[in-house]
């Protein structure tokens, strides 16, 4: 979707332009491009700086990184949350795509100049020239970040959770809204936030000035506990049961002390004093297993020969040597499956491998320095990757199998289960890739139970304005040229069902049984199942819709300066006014939020009763 103001390309579900903040047509679907992580889609709210000692020995990072490295997308890979609405913000995003709030810091690519505004002043990200790993590495780094889920019945491919944490960072504090509580705050400026898959736990780094580090916190739905001070970087595990973090960073030899923190016992164990760490490159070569018990890292780095050694530590056992010039890219629970990158002898190439027990398989013989999409399922037992315009799958650490003769841009799934992760790696909280949908060269393909792909007919991806997939994967809504339709993607050559024409935008319930849409006349309609449309309200903004438990929240008489009136409709019944001067409204897994013209944000549990959060 192109912005009408600046012509910047945005995701299909964006409500605001990520470059200029102009309001766009809202969409509630997950866009498959959302899961194709590239240099245009990785943004962050804050980065780490290096001390500015010995200025004459420093150059801009873009001046000393080899060209092939500069083109990789994982050089700066942190994902953070919007300071207002808590949505995932990736590197390069100047404005939140969901609420439109301007972000503190925006970085477009590793080649761009870095400008960090902090209390300590403006510090440009620098690196000592002799201390950078000068090899052409297709850097692939996994950082598990915000993943949102909602309740569902058991037995589905997807898993969901009831509890949720939402963050609303301010200048000197962070407002936190847990599930069904009034919320609490953390004092300090937000530097980085990562949330576990079930959103019951999070790790938050505050007041990180890049010189002495910051304070790392463990956040639950009810409180916050301090983990450690002087922390430079961290990563929470998918389960939230473990957090790895780095202290005592030495910028002269690029090493730091690596710790593993157990969130259940609130105890930290030291893994090594010699973990290789490049400030600004985040956790290159460092990863944590989903259960938070196993860690991979690199050490013994020789700045003259550019050689290093990769290690893994599984379930608290003795450290195991992974190999020379090799590093773990992803590590499953108990080290059952290890995906690792091995550098060539001349340091000018790399290959991707899988290892299960004593069996090893080379998945990608010659890794490209960019455009290598990698997708993992819940327990890392399945990996999908695209290379040389073909897409392969490896199951249980086995040899690769051809999936489709096209490059894919990710999976198309229910929006509440979308996952955005760092670098070229995307992790989906699904049991298996069977019975899922992929975006292959701008066309949708269905992966059947035999891991064969079948094209979904009747949908032109380039002409489709919005799409939405139900939780069970059996109802796909799509809006093309004002015509709203639905189809069952699991059925080969299924015919589409017409819903309405002259439609501007729509929202749908996660079960796919209720849909609200706004037509060209700004009328809001509701359709339940196969029933006929019923009118709900007039003069509704097509850009400002939210749905929760089949209830609709929408803004009437909206204008960009003063907002509009927020209304609520219970299952399509007559609307009720909630508040005026509302600039935006959106939903989360456990509630609905809205933003006023006075920058106040409110939350409800999905009904019409809202409470102020930032009081």
What does this 3D model show about the protein?
This protein is mainly beta. It has a domain at 461-612: Neuraminidase. It is 1% helix and 43% strand.
Short description:
The model is unreliable at 25-79 and 104-162 (pLDDT under 50). 1% of the residues lie in helices and 43% in strands. By secondary structure, it is mainly β.
Question: Topology of this structure?
Answer:
Blueprint: E1 58-60, H1 61-64, H2 67-70, E2 80-81, E3 88-89, E4 117-118, E5 121-122, E6 126-128, E7 166-169, E8 173-177, E9 184-187, E10 190-195, E11 201-206, E12 214-220, E13 224-236, E14 242-250, E15 255-262, E16 267-276, E17 287-288, E18 295-302, E19 307-313, E20 320-324, E21 326-331, E22 338-343, E23 350-356, E24 359-364, E25 374-376, E26 382-387, E27 390-395, E28 400-404, E29 408-412, E30 425-427, E31 436-440, E32 443-447, E33 453-455, E34 464-469, E35 476-480, E36 483-487, E37 497-500, E38 503-508, E39 514-519, E40 524-528, E41 534-537, E42 540-548, E43 551-559, E44 563-569, E45 576-588, E46 591-596, E47 601-604, E48 611-612
Parallel strand pairs: 25-30
Antiparallel strand pairs: 1-6, 2-3, 4-5, 7-8, 8-9, 10-11, 11-12, 12-13, 13-14, 14-15, 15-16, 17-18, 18-19, 19-20, 21-22, 22-23, 23-24, 25-26, 26-27, 27-28, 29-31, 31-32, 32-33, 34-35, 35-36, 36-37, 38-39, 39-40, 40-41, 42-43, 43-44, 44-45, 45-46, 46-47, 47-48
